Amino acid sequence: MTNREKYNQAFIETLEITADQLGDDLTYQSIEAWDSVGHMQLVSALEDAFDIMMDTDDIIDLSSYPLGIEILKKYDVEFS
Amino acid sequence: MTSSLADRLAAHGERIACAQGDSVWSYARLLAMADSLVNTLKDRTLVALLPANDFTSLCVYVGCLQRKLPLLLLPSSIKPDALRETLAAYQPGSLFAPAGTLNTAQSLDCGAGYARYSLAASDVVPHNDLALLLTTSGSTGSRKYVRLSHTNIFSNAYSIVTYLNITGDDRPITTLPFSYSYGLSIINSHLLAGATIILTEEPLVKRDFWDSLRQRRATTFGGVPYTYTMLRRLRFARMELPSIRYLTQAGGRLGEELHREFALACADKGIGFVPMYGQTEATARMSYLAAEVSCRSIGSVGQAIPGGRFELLDGAGNVIMDPDTEGELIYYGANVCLGYASTAADLARGDENHGRLQTGDIARCDAAGNYYIVGRKKRFLKLAGNRVNLDELDSLLAREGFSAVSAGKDDALLVYTDRNDQDTLKCFLANHTSLNKYAYKITRVPVIPRSDSGKVLYAKLESALERDC
Question: Could you tell me the pTM of the whole model?
Fold first, then answer.
């Protein structure tokens, strides 16, 4: 699985959405499942998928699908 | 003596009452705005509010207290169907809500995104003491509300101000829904003390919340157990929070591990950590564990608040005098609600509790006088601070034609079905309750065990599952 696929999978599974919902307009609270409980689940899924421990600043900045990609780059996760 | 919180606010005059974004409002401005929002409403007629942690909601709330208009505080997470049913049951004369909430009623723009809807009010004249209706459960859409008086609100706020030493220099930041008794108790006690409430709808998991907290130099906030689970994930121990003076916890059992972790982490930072216990039926608070002993009495909810008193009863109804003996927890105090309501007719009823509350919780008291909650008499869970009555949930499921029942412990809700309808069930729970989908698990069982009289044998259900796992 590519990193992009792993990234997408974390969103699809924790927020129970379909691939066509992934995109720039997927943001915190844009869908009901992405509330604070969903957010922490998403963070856990991403940490597991990439075997990283995210800093507080990054957890609270991860407020949209595109921002997550930028944040993960800091942890040497590369997206092609 | 009847005291009203609203009567105490004018004395705070030009002190800053609240801040939201870049704006601040003095107590004088708050009272003036509150008056302008409610001054045309008919006396003694029920008002409904679908609140948020913002200035307009605070104004409507204060305005209703001031004018002695009974207020129905709807849970912010209420679903459209439940909102319609609740309004039909209580028949308020007006509803303050975000513009666009109703499209069938005549509305007036209140500014800041709010509208006031004019509705057909009930003929029932509410009881003179009635100030507020609070829901016992934000998530199942139940129409059962707690009736609170002006004295209830004032006495609980006064007691909280006393034991937390709240002063006009405190600045709480909102972390809990306005309609939730615990969230509202933080607002009430700080208004009484002339403090500055930092209003935000931003959640703890977003940067904007922490930016507001730092910029406005918040001195405190409250959290339910799940808040503390999140704070742990956010590495609270490593955070620098120089302005925070103390944190409180309520809304369900914290668990010894989290209690210990936060009592120690807070002590390290010079922050007081105060676990508390309460119920909406007691306006909010019944007990607190003083920050000084919070590191030692792990798992305890401390002692009754000033002006309140606990009693433990054994199965025969006798008062338990021996320490460390479990019994049903009874609370006495001026903050015990008048009673319940489920329709407009109930608003005419007066005080039915006379200051005595059967909490339904089983507790024990140690030799030092600290109380520990050990379980519940009835089937209740607290999910993310929201009380979920399992019997109520079961009847909801039965009404909808599901062959499913609920069970669980502490903060884990289990729904059992004996049909292959997990997906429909999941869909129903998502659309008709505001339970987060991670808060429950749906399990297929071959058959739901019942007694001869048809009562669900919950113990058998859970033990059968434990064997299978």
Answer: 0.86
